[in-house]
């Protein structure tokens, strides 16, 4: 029995403005919960609440569904109730200068300590030179020096006096002190010394040797006395320095007495200042010399001053709750931190003051949000993040050090313990790709928050959706939407999903529609309210902006460049329906599908596949046709068929199985010799039992054929055949609904191929009777008769017969 066309109410599921119970969206309260994302919200709450290792989150879903906004909203709410994390500072390690120390400090103490140390340095720059210029210091130093000199002179005087008693003089030469004999108050020359009697010479040489030995012992003692004098001066310097420094650092120790790490650092500072007090006294001269050298503040002044500064890496003095950080450019250095260098006097210099924090430092103790795609596009950033999450500490090192491609001496800062919850945001394909190819991913990101782009459409959900529209309108500072506008937005939302029973929660698309409707309301002078007409104008404008390709494709059909018949009948030729999606343009268009059949070896040739223009799903659909033909018609005879199927004038790839029913109908028409109405187009997938299966983009396909028919002239008998399972997806354009209501266009829903072939040929498909025979004259009977004839003829040729008998039988069996 031929299917009846669908009524207008079945083609478009309207939203009654009265059912919303409002005049405008101003009457609706702001929606606080996240609409339609219950699964994702539960996952977010679980991921935030669980505090075990590896329970980081990955928010997956289509772009524009509000993943980042929702994540940030929940993290901000949670972070407000959590304690403010510690400050982190880097300070000098006086024992190992290339390994700066990390100080963990209460919130706000880092800046306080930095300022205190800056003040201390200024105080020391004045106090230490002043202490060493005091009268007391100069007097005590002079006493120590004079005591050494007196002792030294006394020792040498004793030797000199002893030498004089033995007529020997102590003289100074360019190479040091020496002894020489004296006669009549004059030093004896070497020549005169040789003329002395041998006994006298031996006596003098023996006495000089003894004096020389005593002189060496004295010089050795003098050096010890000199060393002692220097130690006394050094001890004096330490005492004076301690006096100048001690009370200043004592004040800081008292201020930070509850922080053992700070007290320990201040003790080290005091010891280092005392040990380097001489350099401190000379630092002012160096500071003046470097005053004209351009440098950042962290490098100003001599190195002695910089080593006592505090580099505040993370400051939470003004923070409230835990940090929530979004890093929009997650390079390796932006995540882990970096050590900067500066060219100074021909060399690259650095110190702990040039250590810069990364996003992980700023988010430590809180939450870090990253875009997964951006992260994976940055070299080594993903590997670096995984390494830090596994080790649970942030170790700053350059990529050169990490990859062992440089061997220059640099800093090796002390690692900082890491306590952070990382949230990655990306689409589903990226999530599943990482999950499949990276074994570490499942270990580190155990919570998936899966965002949907649609929700169920019910009367209650419509009212909730109206609240969402009101909330978005207020957030975007838009005009109020009246009930008709809200209803039209809901209808358009269902069309966005391609399902009359679902609503789109792709917030980006919804917000764009609201903004554009508000714009058209402003240009039309509607005052303070957006109407359904404004929403419709925004929809039409969106379609028109992306409509060039659709118009070009339909123009080619209208002008006859692409051959499509919308009137008449043809054997083995069916109007199939396809959809084109490029950018923002998605539209349907008819495609001519033709089939030819002859005797063969039971093979259905997909020409698209043979020339590698058909995708695997399309090829699968064609192969299903062979299964259907074998099971339906070749129960007692082998399928001796050679058939070919093709999309005429297709110059690109063909993919999908939505044309398999059209291809099957074209093949049945070719086998039965029955013409197909070109006034109808058909879409739908078919299984091996001949059942019609739902397909996508059904609305666009209906509209595509309607536009072509309208351009060529509506005759009243044109229409589209769709699977009955697609009824719940119908949300076609208003002009199509009006044409159906006027009887100028028709839409038919079918359950299987029998219904479809009846509509296309006007001949009953036919069902087997109790004896297994199809009714005479039915489509199926004619198809089966032709296949039997092919089989008989094939058998006759195989047996060596001329095939005349088989041919006669075949001709007699075919009506």
Write down the Rg: 48 Å
Overall spatial form: elongated
CATH architecture of the domain at 551-773: 2-Layer Sandwich
The CATH class of the domain at 551-773 turns out to be Alpha Beta
Number of helices: 30
State the major sheet. 7 strands, mixed
**Low-pLDDT windows of residues:** 288-301, 803-815
- Oligomeric state of this protein: single chain
Helix content: 40-55%
N-to-C terminal Cα separation, in Å? 22 Å
Give average pLDDT, whole number. Answer: 84
- Tell me the fraction of residues in β-strands, as a range: 15-25%
- As for the CATH topology of the domain at 551-773, it is Ribosomal Protein S5, domain 2
Record the strand order, biggest sheet. 25-26-24-23-28-31-32
Tell me how many strands there are.
Answer: 32
Q: Which secondary-structure class do the elements indicate?
A: alpha/beta
Task: Summarize it.
49% of the residues lie in helices and 17% in strands.
Describe the structure.
- Strands 25-26-24-23-28-31-32 form a seven-stranded mixed sheet. It has a five-stranded parallel sheet with strand order 8-13-16-1-17.
- Among the domains are: 114 residues, Helicase, Ruva Protein, domain 3 (Orthogonal Bundle), CATH 1.10.8.60; 181 residues, Rossmann fold, CATH 3.40.50; 223 residues, Ribosomal Protein S5, domain 2 (2-Layer Sandwich), CATH 3.30.230.
- The chain has 815 residues and is α/β, with parallel strands linked by helices.
- The protein is built from 30 helices and 32 strands.
- It is elongated and about 165 Å long.
- Strand 23 and strand 24 form a beta hairpin.
């Amino acid at each position: 029995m031929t299917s009846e066309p669908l009524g207008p109410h079945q083609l478009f599921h309207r939203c009654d403005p009265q059912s919303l119970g409002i005049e405008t969206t101003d009457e609706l309260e702001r929606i606080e919960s996240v609409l339609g994302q219950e699964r994702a919200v539960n996952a977010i709450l679980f991921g935030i609440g669980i505090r075990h290792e590896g329970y980081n989150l990955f928010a997956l879903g289509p772009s524009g569904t509000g993943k980042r906004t929702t994540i940030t909203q929940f993290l901000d709410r949670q972070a407000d109730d959590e304690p403010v994390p510690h400050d982190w500072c880097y300070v000098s390690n006086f024992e190992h200068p290339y390994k700066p120390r990390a100080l963990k400090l209460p919130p706000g103490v880092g800046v306080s300590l930095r300022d205190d140390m800056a003040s201390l340095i200024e105080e020391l720059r004045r106090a230490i030179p002043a202490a060493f210029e005091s009268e007391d210091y100069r007097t005590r130093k002079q006493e120590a020096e004079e005591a050494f000199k007196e002792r030294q002179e006394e020792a040498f005087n004793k030797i000199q006096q002893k030498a004089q008693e033995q007529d020997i003089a102590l003289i100074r030469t360019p190479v040091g002190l020496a002894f020489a004999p004296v006669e009549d108050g004059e030093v004896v020359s070497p020549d005169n010394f040789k003329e002395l009697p041998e006994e006298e010479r031996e006596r003098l040489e023996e006495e000089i040797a003894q004096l020389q030995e005593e002189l060496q012992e004295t010089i050795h003692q003098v050096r010890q006395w000199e060393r002692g004098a220097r130690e006394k001066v050094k001890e004096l310097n330490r005492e004076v320095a301690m006096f100048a420094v001690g009370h200043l650092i004592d004040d800081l120790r008292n201020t930070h007495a509850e922080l053992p790490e700070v007290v320990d650092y201040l003790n080290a500072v005091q010891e280092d200042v005392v040990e380097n007090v001489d350099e401190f006294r000379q630092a002012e001269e160096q500071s003046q010399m470097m005053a004209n050298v351009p440098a950042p503040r962290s490098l100003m002044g001599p190195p002695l001053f910089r080593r006592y500064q505090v580099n505040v890496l993370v400051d939470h003095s003004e923070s409230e709750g835990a940090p929530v950080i979004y890093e929009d450019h997650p390079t390796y250095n932006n995540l882990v931190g970096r050590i900067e260098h500066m060219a100074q006097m021909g060399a690259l210099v650095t110190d702990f003051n040039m250590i810069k924090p990364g996003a992980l430092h700023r988010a430590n103790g809180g939450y870090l949000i990253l875009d997964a795609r951006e992260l994976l596009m940055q070299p080594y950033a993903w590997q670096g993040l995984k390494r830090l999450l596994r080790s649970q500490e942030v170790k700053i090192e350059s990529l050169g050090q990490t990859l062992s491609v440089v061997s220059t001496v640099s800093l090796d800062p002390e690692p900082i313990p890491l306590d952070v919850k990382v949230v990655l945001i990306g689409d589903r394909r990226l999530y599943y790709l990482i999950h499949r190819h990276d074994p570490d991913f499942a270990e580190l990101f155990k919570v998936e928050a899966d965002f949907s782009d649609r929700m169920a459409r019910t009367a209650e959900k419509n009212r909730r959706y109206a609240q969402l529209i009101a909330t978005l309108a207020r957030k975007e500072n838009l005009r109020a939407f009246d009930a008709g506008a809200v209803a039209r937005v809901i209808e358009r939302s269902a069309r966005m999903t391609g399902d009359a029973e679902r609503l789109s929660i792709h917030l980006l698309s919804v917000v764009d529609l609201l903004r554009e409707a508000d714009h058209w309301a402003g240009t039309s002078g509607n005052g303070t309210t957006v109407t359904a007409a404004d929403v419709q104008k925004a929809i039409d404008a969106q379609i028109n902006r992306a409509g060039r390709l659709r118009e070009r494709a339909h123009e080619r059909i209208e002008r006859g460049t692409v051959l499509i018949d919308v009137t008449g009948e043809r054997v083995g030729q069916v109007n199939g329906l396809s959809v084109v999606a490029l950018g923002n343009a998605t539209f349907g268009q008819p495609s001519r599908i033709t089939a030819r059949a002859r005797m063969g070896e039971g093979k259905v040739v997909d020409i698209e596949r043979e020339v590698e223009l058909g995708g695997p799903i399309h090829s699968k659909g064609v192969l299903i046709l062979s299964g259907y033909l074998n099971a339906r018609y070749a129960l007692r005879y082998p399928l001796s068929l050679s058939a070919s199927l093709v999309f005429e004038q297709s110059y690109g790839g063909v993919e999908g199985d939505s044309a398999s029913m059209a291809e099957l109908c074209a093949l049945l028409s070719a086998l039965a010799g029955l013409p197909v109405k070109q006034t109808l187009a058909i879409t739908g997938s078919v299984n091996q039992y001949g059942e019609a299966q739902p397909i996508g983009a059904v609305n666009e396909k209906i509209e595509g054929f309607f536009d072509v028919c309208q351009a060529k002239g509506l005759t009243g008998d044109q229409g589209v055949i769709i699977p009955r399972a697609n009824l719940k997806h119908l949300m076609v354009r208003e002009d199509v609904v009006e044409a159906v209501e006027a009887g100028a266009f028709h839409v038919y829903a079918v359950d299987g191929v029998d219904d479809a072939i009846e509509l296309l040929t006007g001949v009953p498909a036919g069902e087997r009777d109790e004896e297994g025979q199809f009714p005479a004259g039915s489509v199926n009977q004619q198809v089966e008769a032709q296949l039997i004839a092919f089989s008989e003829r094939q058998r006759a040729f195989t047996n060596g017969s001329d095939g005349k008998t088989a041919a006669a039988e075949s001709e007699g069996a075919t009506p």
